[in-house]
Amino acid sequence: EILSEITFLHLNPLLEDKNMADIYVALLHTLPTGSHKVLAAKSMIENEERREITSDIIFIDHSTGNAASAEAWVCAIKNYRYICFVPENIAPEKIQQIKACGGELRFTPAEDFIAGAKRAAAEYQREDLKNRIYLNQAANRASPEGYRQIGEMILSLFPDVSAYVCGAGTYSTITGVSSVLKEKKPEVQIICVEAIYAPHVHAQRNGYTVHFKKHNLIGFGAETLPPNAKPRLYDNIVLIDEPNALKTMKMLHRRGILVGKTSAANIYWAVKVA
Known about the structure:
- This protein is an alpha/beta fold.
- It contains ten helices and nine strands.
- Helix 1 (37-49) packs across helix 2 (66-78) and helix 6 crosses helix 7.
């Protein structure tokens, strides 16, 4: 099992304002490849294995980094070839990590963002449907299933949990975790954090049209609402922009918590909710 135990950081002692509810942050960078995406990767690939695939199959996906590393790692362990289509402007360290985990990269134009990588991956699969499996993490129903175990762990460690705050990229994480929380403890408030540049569910609820803006909150906010989004599970939709995410990230760095912008975006809203 990849996930046997999660370390949670009690954030409140590191914050200046002590007049708030307790905040616990899941430190998922301790998982293989450094992110929670490995849970979805394992779930998706093992779901395909139930169809008795051959060893020469090629797994394909599109990603901005973390999912590609995780999928490449799982494929390496299981001895499958893995190819990921990525925008050419993803972080250099992500490129290095994907390659180190055994993944092959195909670059797409930066100006086409993640949609361009998605189109290229789908086109590559169509060239050989028999021997290429497109995981398509944002639409793959097995992806949220991989995160249900996090929901179970949260309930076992924090039976009095009152709110869960999670950012949305593919929406798989928030959907998988909140599905468990809502089944077992319906009163838990699910707070979905969307990038202000791609506020899909927020727009649905407030009656306006989304005009997608390219942004650098990598991991948040695709051009369109992914199929794995389940808005009925989300009690509240809040928005984050890059300046507030950066400000929070720098504050956390000064306190010895070395997170990136998207983790900081989650913490920004966790503090507000608390």
